[in-house]
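User: Please predict the structure of the protein below. I'd like the answer in structure-token form so I can feed it into my own downstream comparison script.

Assistant: Understood. Taking the following sequence of 172 residues as input:
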Amino acid sequence: MSASLPTAITIQPATLADIPTIIQLAEATWEPTYRFIISKDQIEYMYRVIYTPTSLQRQMSEEGHTFLLLYAEGHPAGYASFSRLPAGDALFKLHKIYILPSHQGQGLGQNLIEAVEQATRQIGGKTLELNVNRHNPAISFYERLGFQRHREEDIAIGPYWMNDYVMRKELA
């Protein structure tokens, strides 16, 4: 963790008007996050499926995803999205969490996850789960924050596979 934290951090809910900001952040974080884990073709395919304006609008408007934007020193530096899972009223899923590479190691990811946990608790959340590629170094980050490996899951996405751990954290 870096010794110098940004002095001004704000986290706020995103709206449909923030979709261009989310796309801008995704463009800066997606490839660096996955380039050593999955093929370039899979990175590009998944990005095209998940991060079009239409797809993000559907996630927000129809699929019930809440997006949070994190600002450091007034500039967008990260985002997360989460939703309640149909399996149970108290089970929520963290769909996305990304911090700009230039801002990683400053505690911002932890701040963003804590904001997601607080938001889910306020609406009855008791468990938060996420999917993470089984070769993603972020696994240790999630474990430090109290997430535990719950199961393995292989999910087809177009001609590719997401080979994930499902990790869970019980919220206090």
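That's the full token string. The chain has a mean pLDDT of 94.
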